[in-house]
Specification:
Blueprint: E1 2-6, H1 21-30, E2 34-38, E3 40-42, E4 48-50, H2 56-67, E5 83-88, E6 91-98, H3 114-117, E7 119-122, E8 125-128, H4 131-142, H5 161-174, H6 185-191, E9 195-197, E10 204-206, H7 208-214, H8 217-223, E11 229-233, E12 242-243, E13 245-248, H9 257-269, E14 278-279, E15 282-283, H10 288-302, E16 312-317, E17 320-326, H11 333-338, H12 347-355, H13 365-375, E18 382-386, E19 392-398, H14 405-415, H15 417-421, H16 425-437, E20 440-441, H17 442-446, H18 453-465, E21 470-472, E22 479-481, E23 516-517, H19 519-522, H20 526-529, H21 542-553, H22 559-569, E24 575-576, H23 577-584, H24 588-601, E25 605-607, E26 619-622
Parallel strand pairs: 1-2, 11-16
Antiparallel strand pairs: 2-6, 3-4, 5-6, 7-8, 9-10, 11-13, 12-23, 14-15, 16-17, 17-19, 18-19, 20-22, 21-22, 24-26, 25-26
Helix pairs in contact: 9-10, 10-12, 10-13, 21-22, 22-24
Length: about 625
C-alpha cells in the first residue's frame, strides 16, 4: 500500500485538512489504495517526521463533511474504521486508509466533472488522468462485460468461415449430443453469445465477442483500431527483441482470437518434456504445465481491454513465458492470487472458450497456474498491474528453480556457508530472488511465500541491517538489491521499448530458424537515438545546473513545481525527452504524459518538429525562447 504524508497543521498550527488531500484520495482510490498520514512531514531523504495535530477532532469533522459533500468529491468510500487518531510519541496524528475503489465506483473524482477531477497515482505523485483513461473507467463502471455490445453494420460477412467451421467442429466433437450442435450457423452463433438482438433498441447483429473470436482482421480493426496480437519466441534469456519465431496480425492469417490461440499454444508447449504416464490404458499427453500455459494464454485473451492502446503480447524464452494484455485488472492483485473471485472483462469470450474445453471455471485459473509452477519448484508467477506508460497487465512465468543449486552456491560464496545456513526461509527466498531477478520487493516476496506481510517486512529489514541488501525507493515501491548493485530495468520478459500503440503494417509472421531483429527492434525510439544530456546547447548555467540537481533530489514534487522547472530548463534551448528525464530524474513516460503534453497543449512549450509530433528527435523549448534549427 502506498503512503503519503501531509503536515495538515494549517495557518493556525492547530490542525486543518489540506486542500491537496483530495487529489491524493482520488488517486489512491483509482489506483491501488494507500495510507494518508495527517500531521506527518516527509523529509528530503524519504524519512518521516511526526508533527502531530493539536485538534484532530476538527480535522476529522472537516474530512467527513467534505467526503459526504457531492460538490466536493464524487463519492465517499471510507468507513469509520478507515479514519483513526493514532498516538505516536505523545503526538496525535490522523491515519486515513483509502481503499482501492471497486470497478463500479471508479472514477472517484473531485468536483462535478470526472474529466477534470479524476486523479491516479504514479511514481512521483498524483496526476490528472487523460480523457481516454477516464472514459475507460466510466465504461468499466457501467459494463459487467465489455464484449456483449451489438455492433451495428457488422454481420455474418465479417465472420471468417473457416475459423467458425473449426470452432463448430471442436464443439460438436466435445458435446455431440448438445442441442446447439444441431443448429444452423446463425442460431449457433446466437446461442454461444456471438450474435444478439438488443431488446430495447431492436438492433441485431454480431457482438463484440463474436467479431473478436471469429472475425476477419480488417473488420476487427474497423471496430478496434489498436487491436494487435503478437507472439514472439526469443532464443536467449535477455531483454532484447531478437526472435526466432513470430506470429502477429499481418494479414497472412485471419487475425482473430480463436485462430491466434490455436496457432500459439502448440508453439508455447512444443519444447516441454512430457513424462510417460497412463490414465487407465491411455497415455497422458499433457502435464500440469501444459494446462497452466493454456490457462495463461486464454486468460490473456479474455481479460484484455481491446479498446486500449497496448497490444496483446505473448513471449517465450528459455527462462520464462510472458503474457501481456491491454487493460489493468478489475480486481486487486492479492484477490486474483488468492482465487475464488472473478470479474472477467469479456465474459462472452470466456464462455466461448469454455464451451470448447479451454479455460477454467471463474476464479480458479491463477491458483491452478501457481500450483503447477510450485509442483515444478519454479519461481512463483509474477503479476504486475501497470498504468504507465499504458494500462496493461503483465504475467510472468519463470522456469527457473526456486532454489537453484548454482545460485545457492553463489550466495554461500558471497555471504558464507555457515551464515547462509542461519537465514530464515523468507530471507533465503529474498536473496535467491535478488540473485536471479536483480532485485526483490515486498509485494513480490509476499506473492511468492505463505507468510504474513509483517514477517516479510521484518525479514527484509534484517537483511538490510546485516548489510546483505541495500534498498531504494519509498514505501511500496521500495526495492532491495545486493550492495553496490542497483537493479537495471526490470526484466519481465517483454523486452525494452515495447511499442505503445499497435502499429499498422507490423512485421510479417516469421517461422524460419534464422533469428533477426523485428520491426519493433529496428525502429529507433527517441530514447535510443537522441543526443545525450552532455550535448545540451547552449550549456546550462550554474543556476540551471542547481535547479536540475534540486529536481533530481526531490522524491516528492508537485506537478506545478516540476513544470515550472521544465520551462526554466527549456528557456532558450530545445531539450529532448531523454535529456529532460536525465536532468529532472523523472521517468520519461511520466514527463511525456503528465507534463510535456499538457505544457504543449497550453502553448507554454513548443515542439521542434510541430508537424511530426512523434519524430524520433522531437524536442521542447519554452514558447518564445526557442533556438536552433529544425534541420
Amino acid at each position: 500500500m502506498d503512503l503519503e504524508a501531509k503536515r495538515a497543521l494549517g495557518s493556525s498550527g492547530r490542525g486543518e485538512l489540506p486542500s491537496d488531500f483530495f487529489p491524493t484520495y482520488s488517486a489512491f482510490a483509482n489506483t491501488n489504495g494507500g495510507l494518508v498520514l495527517l500531521g506527518v512531514a516527509e523529509r528530503h531523504d524519504g524519512t518521516l517526521e511526526v508533527l502531530g495535530i493539536p485538534e484532530p477532532q476538527r480535522v476529522q469533522k472537516n474530512l467527513w463533511d467534505s467526503l459526504n459533500n457531492p460538490q466536493r468529491v464524487s463519492s465517499n468510500i471510507l468507513t469509520d474504521a478507515d479514519v483513526q487518531v493514532v498516538d505516536v510519541d505523545g503526538k496525535n496524528i490522523i491515519q486515513v486508509r483509502v481503499p482501492r475503489a471497486l470497478r463500479t465506483q471508479r472514477p472517484i473524482f473531485i468536483g462535478s466533472n470526472p474529466m477534470r477531477g479524476t486523479y491516479r497515482r504514479n511514481h512521483e505523485g498524483d496526476y490528472l488522468c487523460p480523457d481516454d483513461v477516464v472514459r475507460r473507467m466510466l465504461a468499466e463502471q457501467r459494463d459487467e462485460t465489455r464484449d456483449a455490445d451489438v455492433l451495428e453494420r457488422f454481420g455474418m460477412d465479417d465472420v471468417n468461415k473457416e475459423t467458425f467451421r473449426q470452432y463448430r467442429q471442436r464443439y460438436a466433437a466435445r458435446t455431440p449430443d448438445h442441442p446447439w450442435a444441431r443448429e444452423d450457423d446463425p442460431s449457433f452463433l446466437k446461442a454461444i453469445g456471438g450474435w444478439r438482438r438488443d431488446r430495447e433498441t431492436e438492433k441485431e447483429g454480431l457482438t463484440a465477442a463474436g467479431l473478436l473470436m471469429f472475425g476477419n482482421l480488417n473488420a476487427i480493426k474497423e471496430k478496434f483500431p489498436f487491436y494487435m496480437l503478437d507472439y514472439q519466441e526469443r532464443p536467449d534469456a535477455k531483454r532484447d527483441l531478437r526472435w526466432v519465431d513470430r506470429l502477429t496480425t499481418d494479414g497472412a492469417w485471419s487475425g482473430n482470437l480463436f485462430d491466434f490461440y490455436h496457432l500459439v499454444f502448440p508453439r508455447l508447449v512444443r519444447d516441454l518434456k512430457v513424462p510417460f504416464a497412463l490414465r487407465g490404458d491411455t497415455r497422458v499427453e499433457e502435464t500440469a504445465v501444459h494446462e497452466a500455459l493454456r490457462e495463461a494464454l486464454v486468460n490473456t485473451l479474455i481479460h484484455a481491454d481491446y479498446t486500449g492502446r497496448a497490444s496483446v503480447l505473448v513471449v517465450k524464452r528459455p527462462d520464462l513465458f510472458g503474457f501481456r494484455n491491454p487493460g489493468t485488472m478489475r480486481l486487486p492483485v492479492d484477490a486474483v492470487l488468492q482465487g475464488g473471485h472473478s470479474d472477467c472483462r469479456n465474459r462472452r469470450l470466456q464462455d466461448m472458450f469454455r464451451y470448447v474445453g479451454l479455460g477454467e471455471q471463474a476464479g480458479s485459473g491463477i491458483p491452478k497456474i501457481r500450483s503447477a509452477w510450485k509442483g515444478q519448484h519454479w519461481a512463483a508467477p509474477d503479476i504486475q498491474d501497470q498504468t504507465e506508460p499504458l494500462e496493461q497487465t503483465l504475467f510472468t512465468l519463470r522456469t527457473v528453480s526456486l532454489l537453484p543449486g548454482d545460485v545457492m552456491r553463489g550466495l554461500e560464496t558471497r555471504f558464507g556457508t555457515a551464515e547462509m545456513a542461519e537465514v530464515t526461509e523468507v530471507q533465503r527466498l529474498a536473496l535467491v530472488t535478488v540473485a536471479t531477478e536483480g532485485k526483490v520487493s515486498h509485494p513480490r516476496l509476499v506473492g511468492m511465500i505463505d507468510q504474513h506481510p509483517r514477517d516479510v517486512s521484518l525479514a527484509l529489514n534484517a537483511l538490510v541491517r546485516k548489510g546483505w541488501l541495500e534498498s531504494s525507493g519509498a514505501h511500496k515501491r521500495t526495492v532491495y538489491y545486493f550492495p553496490g548493485e542497483p537493479p537495471k530495468a526490470a526484466d519481465n520478459g517483454f523486452g525494452p521499448d515495447e511499442p505503445e500503440v499497435a502499429p499498422a503494417g507490423v512485421a510479417s509472421t516469421a517461422t524460419s530458424e534464422q533469428s533477426g531483429p523485428s520491426s519493433v527492434q529496428s525502429a529507433p525510439s527517441s530514447v535510443q537515438s537522441d543526443s545525450t544530456v552532455a550535448e545540451v546547447s547552449p550549456p546550462l548555467t550554474a543556476e540551471e545546473e542547481a535547479l536540475a540537481a534540486s529536481l533530481r533530489s526531490r522524491k516528492r514534487i508537485s506537478p506545478a513545481q516540476l513544470q515550472e522547472g521544465i520551462l526554466k530548463l527549456c528557456g532558450g534551448r530545445y531539450l529532448t525527452l531523454p535529456q529532460l528525464a536525465s536532468l529532472t530524474g523523472k521517468a520519461p513516460s511520466t514527463l511525456r504524459i503528465h507534463h510535456l503534453r499538457p505544457l504543449v497543449d497550453q502553448g507554454r512549450l513548443v515542439l521542434r518538429y510541430p508537424d511530426a509530433p512523434t519524430h524520433p528527435h522531437q524536442a521542447y523549448a519554452a514558447n518564445g525562447q526557442a533556438t536552433g534549427s529544425h534541420a
